[in-house]
Amino acid sequence: MNDQGNTRREFLQTSLAGAAALSLGPAVLGADDTGKGLPMRPLGKTGEKVSILCLGGWHIGSVKDEKEAIKIMHAAIDEGITFFDNAWDYHDGGSETIMGKALAMDGLRKRVFLMTKNCDRDAKGTRKCLEESLKRLQTDHLDLWQFHEINYDNDPDWVFDKGGMEEALKAQKEGKVRFIGFTGHKDPHIHLKMLPKHKWDTVQMPINACDYFYRSFVHQVVPEAVKRDIAPIGMKSLGGDGRLVKAKVCTVEEALRYSLSQPIASLVSGIDSIKVLEQNVVIARNFKPLEKDEMDKFLAKVKDAAGDGRHERFKSTQLFDGPYHQAQHGLTKKDVEG
Question: Which residue of 37, 41, 151, 331 sits 20 to 30 Å from the alpha carbon of 48, by its own alpha carbon?
Answer without folding.
Answer: 151
